[in-house]
Amino acid sequence: MNCLICFDELQVGDTWFSFLLPTYTKAVCAHCDQTLQRIQGVLCMCCGRMQATSSSESEVMCEDCRTWRRLADPLRCNRSLYIYNDEMKRHMNRFKFRGDVAIATAFGPELRALFWHSFRDYTPVPIPLSAERLKERGFNQSEVLADLLQVPFQPLLARRHTEKQSKKSKWERMNTENPFFLSNEVVRGKKYVLIDDIYTTGVTLRQAASILCKYGAVEVAALTLCRG
Ligand SMILES: [Zn+2]
Ligand SMILES: [Zn+2]
């Protein structure tokens, strides 16, 4: 077996975990594993960002999320696995822009574990790409991640092609035209969890969540691989 990130042969010490828990096979060598910065400790109860607090308080909310809440936040919460550090940027670059879909499978076991821990009664909904972007890239990275959960997901959303609006603040962007629209029926009263690669400002996920809420979802959360 080889490491899914650097392709070096895995040493016995790297895979001991798999003898104990066959469903949690380590697919990454010890060196690559060290480059993954896991999100842990005290988190913002809403967006899942790590909080610099030594208190043992379990209900902490970051400044950003307090503002979202005042604006009637459609997103219940977000949980991410890893910090979007330089190494993760390189991994994501290989995955998204060079089409190395195999690297994503390295994150499968932990992504599944987080799904079962936090979102077991939610139906996964991958964030779609616009038709233009899908043609250019050849695959949707969010669908690849949703596939890794090994539970049926629902492609409920589609997306219009829009230009990047980086000059606007996130609060302003929330009020611009929503690029998402419904492509399949939302089941009324159901809980959905949006799947995406990165939580950056949270605007994209909130725009998608607002559509699902509008059409009857009782609750919408997000599960993302990385936190910017
Ligand atoms: Zn490696
Ligand atoms: Zn927050």
Describe the structure in brief.
The chain is an alpha/beta fold and 228 residues long.
Structural write-up:
It comes from Ectobacillus antri. This protein is an alpha/beta fold and about 230 residues long. It contains nine helices and six strands; from the N terminus they run αααβααβααβαββαβ. The chain has helices spanning about 15-20, 30-35, 65-70, 85-95, 110-120, 130-135, 140-150, 170-175, 205-215, and strands at about 80-85, 125, 155-160, 180, 190-200, 220-225. The strands form two sheets. A four-stranded parallel β-sheet has the order 1-6-5-2. Strands 3-4 form a two-stranded antiparallel ribbon. The protein binds zinc ion (2 copies). One zinc ion binds next to helix 3.
Question: Distance N terminus to C terminus?
Answer: 31 Å
Helix and strand run: HHHEHHEHHEHEEHE
Q: What's the overall average pLDDT, rounded?
A: 89
Number of helices: 9
Bound molecules: zinc ion
Shape label = globular
Residues in helices, as a percent range: 25-40%
Q: Could you list some keywords that capture this structure?
A:
two-stranded antiparallel sheet; PRTase_dom; alpha/beta; 4-stranded parallel sheet; 228 residues; single chain; 6 strands; Rossmann fold; 15% strand; ComF/GntX_DNA_util-trans; 2 domains; PRTase-like; binds zinc ion; ComF family protein; 9 helices
Show the helix and strand layout:
Elements: H1 16-20, H2 30-35, H3 63-70, E1 78-83, H4 86-97, H5 108-118, E2 123-126, H6 131-137, H7 141-148, E3 157-159, H8 170-173, E4 180-182, E5 191-199, H9 203-214, E6 219-227
Parallel strand pairs: 1-6, 2-5, 5-6
Antiparallel strand pairs: 3-4
This protein binds zinc ion (ZN) (2 copies).
One zinc ion (ZN) binds next to helix 3.
